[in-house]
Write a structure and sequence with these properties.
- This protein has eight helices and 39 strands.
- It is mostly beta strands.
- It has five domains: about 55 residues, no CATH class; about 130 residues, Hypothetical Protein Tm1070, Chain: A (Sandwich); about 110 residues, Immunoglobulins (Immunoglobulin-like); about 130 residues, no CATH class; about 180 residues, Carboxypeptidase-like, regulatory domain (Immunoglobulin-like, Sandwich), CATH 2.60.40.
- The strands form twelve sheets. Strands 6, 7, 8, 9, 10, 11, 12 and 13 form an eight-stranded antiparallel beta sheet that branches. Strands 32-30-36-37-39 form a five-stranded antiparallel beta sheet.
């Protein structure tokens, strides 16, 4: 199978199959499949080739320079190079050449081409090293798209490397390329008649990049903690101040570094920066298969700063993974602590590298979760949250404990790994059990559905620890433990045009409109929860840092003192004088259960504008919102009758919360549109006309 890929990773230019006879050969020259590859740009093509064979084969790639634009014009230059047969994470070239003299008037120029055969993007770190071992001429990273390539010839990182002979504007060195997943590459050396990169070509030669001895060391910037570690204040009335350092006090940022190697790492450079400016540099020794810490003294301010730490910031150390050397946190971020049992920690250490995502440890995985959570916060933009969720999260603590040790102080091993720890605002535990190899068993797929890459359910559960409720609990079901007993003309309304099912399982009649993290797993925080989080922006925990805290869903009772509901028909026309009945949800069985009986809890008549007043809390006779196991009363059913036409709809407490948070604390305004049907008419006949 011959496949010609686009260099940008776009749809393949073409593919075809050929059969090679025993002891025979296949030549692409003159082959209609090869010649018929479509142009990547009008009149010409560029791409790279992948060949898969049913048995081992070998081959040669022939590059011909012709004096013209037709395949039959005279040959100016011919070069043959072996087809690259294997992919590697580390590739090398013995030479980096830029305007380096060869003979009178002839100069040498080199460039590398790296191909990514993976179905996922790959990040490469390119180092151009001095031949005398005194350091690097250049170091940079690039991302190669899935099935794409990187070409050094016009890359500013490559062409802009420091000149070893600045007087003559020329350089010589050697090249090391480390990739987050296996890649393949070619080193091309061109002799040019002149001293510029576009001078006429005299000779061209290409050889596969060498796969040298792989690096065995990996230095990992694990997490950044802050000292002194302060407990949150239980029941604090001012958690934006209490539990935080005092303005002007001395604190210490502490970077935790791991060395995944059987050899000690000595005098490894590090760098601290604040808002991008270098704050401190130095070196640190990290023992073999051990850890070390690096401190940065700082004067506390509540104003947000980016605190960043890099180990081996200039890539002086050859490592198996180069993308896990830097951490950046916001100084005012909410802190999270993770407790992990030894076998789980080891499992991630053993297998994270298989993702090809630049990760090589449990800490790398944990930092990915935090990073993606912060990205989710920034992307959760709504009219009531124009800057998204304002808080950021910082991994402050990683505690590795023996198997079967969790929980350390009662509770559940996941929700409550250490109830005695109040130094962090959120906590979660990772116990070892038989499901680890199954739940985290996909070591290859980089997607939001693979928890070994991104565990969205973890962020959902930590959302509870912050105080958020399950938004999906506002869905209305008619499955076991949930009932709607309302009758119309003596017949149940469920499953009729009055109240049709909204799913193929015929167990739900209404889904909340608020979708996101707390109504599943993302990819953003839902609108209601985003605003709820901003209510406690910058607050330490108050009634627990675990799932579930004592203030879980406290915001659900933020309701305007009075609420006005305008009822309209399906076309949007108001329904003056309409009869409005409210049916509240009673308790049932199961999480967020709702049972609606056939007796209306409120009976109202709309005014000339179609408006009725519902009071502060039409959802409950006691004035409070309940959202827990066996009962959620946050959704009421509304029956609207205008003349001989009847329709049903829903009102949800979350909409009342949003009105309150918009500043309409005295009077919230709401609208409800219902499709009206004539009483006694055949099921399914819908009257869409205005009254």
């Amino acid at each position: 199978m011959v496949t010609v890929h686009r260099t940008d990773g776009g749809p393949d230019l073409g593919s075809f199959t050929r059969t090679i006879p025993a002891m025979g050969a296949w030549n692409a020259y003159g082959d209609p499949g090869w010649n018929g590859i479509p142009d990547s740009t009008p009149g010409r093509s560029i791409g790279w080739v992948e060949i898969h064979a049913s048995s081992p084969v070998f081959g040669t790639n022939r590059v011909i320079l012709r004096d013209g634009s037709a395949p039959s014009v005279p040959v100016a230059l011919l070069d043959e190079e072996p087809l690259v047969q294997a992919t590697e994470n580390s590739l090398f070239s013995s030479l980096y050449l830029k305007n380096w003299p060869a003979s009178a008037g002839v100069t040498q120029w080199s460039s590398a081409v790296v191909n990514n055969p993976s179905a996922y993007p790959v990040t490469i770190t390119v180092r151009i090293r001095r031949v005398d071992g005194s350091g690097s001429l250049a170091s940079f990273t690039r991302t190669i798209p899935a099935k794409g390539w990187w070409n050094a010839s016009n890359d500013p990182g490559w062409t802009g490397a420091t000149e070893t002979d600045a007087l003559n504007h020329r350089s010589i060195g050697w090249v090391e390329i480390n990739a987050s997943a296996p890649v393949l590459g070619l080193d091309r050396v061109v002799l040019r008649q002149g001293t510029t990169a576009d001078a006429p070509v005299v000779l061209l030669d290409g050889t596969p990049l060498a796969a040298g001895a792989r690096a065995t060391q990996d230095l990992i910037a694990g997490w950044i903690s802050r000292a002194p570690a302060l407990d949150y204040v239980w029941g604090s009335a001012n958690p934006a101040v209490e539990g935080w350092p005092t303005a002007g006090s001395s604190v210490t940022w502490r970077a935790h570094v791991r060395n995944r190697s059987s050899a000690a790492a000595t005098a490894v450079p590090y760098r601290w920066s604040i808002n991008g400016a270098v704050a401190a540099t130095g070196t640190v020794n990290v023992p073999a298969n051990g850890a070390a810490t690096v401190d940065l003294p700082w004067t506390w301010t509540s104003s947000r700063r980016e605190i960043a730490f890099s180990i081996d910031p200039d890539d002086a150390v050859s490592e198996t993974h180069e993308l896990n050397n830097r951490i950046a946190v916001d100084s005012d971020a909410i802190s999270v602590g993770l407790w992990v049992e030894q076998s789980v920690h080891d499992y991630f250490d053993d297998h994270q590298r298989e993702l090809g995502a630049g990760s090589n440890s449990w800490e790398d995985w944990a930092q990915r979760q935090v990073r993606m959570w912060n990205e989710m916060f920034a992307a959760s933009i709504y009219p009531e949250a124009p800057s998204g969720v304002l808080d950021r999260i910082r991994l402050d603590k990683v505690v590795v404990v023996p198997d079967d040790a969790l929980p350390l102080a009662g509770g559940y091993p996941t929700n409550n790994p250490n109830l005695n720890d109040r130094t962090v605002d959120l906590q979660w535990g990772f116990p070892n059990d038989a499901s680890i190899g199954t739940f985290y068993g996909d070591h290859a797929t980089r997607s939001s559905s693979n928890p070994f890459y991104y565990e969205a359910s973890l962020l959902h559960e930590l959302g509870h620890a912050r105080y958020l409720v399950d938004v999906y609990g506002f869905n209305v079901h008619v499955s076991a433990g949930n009932r709607i007993d309302i009758l119309e003309n003596g017949a149940p309304i469920v499953g009729t045009p009055y109240m049709p099912y909204v799913n193929s399982w015929r167990d739900a009649v209404r889904y909340t409109p608020y979708t996101g993290l707390m109504n599943g797993n993302g990819p953003t925080v839902d609108r209601h929860s985003a605003v709820a989080l901003n209510l406690i922006r910058g607050h330490r925990a108050t009634l627990g840092n675990y799932n579930a805290p004592g203030n879980l869903g406290a915001y659900l009772n933020d309701l305007p003192a009075q609420n006005e509901l305008t009822v309209r028909d399906a076309s949007g026309a108001a329904l003056p004088g309409a009869s409005v009945r409210i049916y509240r949800a009673g308790p049932g069985e199961g999480w967020y259960a709702k049972v609606y009986d056939n007796t209306a809890d409120m009976s109202l008549t709309a005014d000339a504008a179609g408006k009725v007043l519902l009071g502060r809390c039409p959802f409950s006779a006691t004035g409070g919102i309940t959202h827990t196991n066996n009962h959620s009363n946050g959704v009421a059913i509304v029956r609207v009758q205008s003349g001989d036409r009847v329709g049903y709809g829903f009102i949800e407490a979350t909409d009342f919360n949003l009105e309150y948070w918009r500043g309409r604390t005295a009077l919230g305004r709401h609208e409800l549109r219902v499709a009206l049907r004539k009483q006694g008419s055949a099921v399914g006949s819908v009257d869409e006309h205005a009254p």
